């Protein structure tokens, strides 16, 4: 049976492929369909795309350190799952806002982005605490 960090790393790596596809779509929008998205939507597309890419790379580093914290498999699943859910929520919230948001107003997308940030913070704090206690 595979370890939690192995399965979660595979999920993160495969998720990077979706970010690559998003980059291709964004490039198409800004080069061949310039202006089609509109300024607000283009800003949120860029933000969602950038956050997804950076946070997925962060998750790969996180998953390398997670076994060093000495957590049980269940705790590794919880922390790693919270991290990946946070990545999906934070970056996905930008895309939700892109679809339903309005200039200068919050939406379900901005709520989702903030919830993702909280999940990410909780996962990072848990890992930091585990590493401190394992030292």
TrEMBL record:
Source organism superkingdom: Bacteria
TM stretches of this protein: 7-27, 47-65, 77-100, 112-134
Keywords: Membrane, Transmembrane, Transmembrane helix
Record-given protein name: Uncharacterized protein
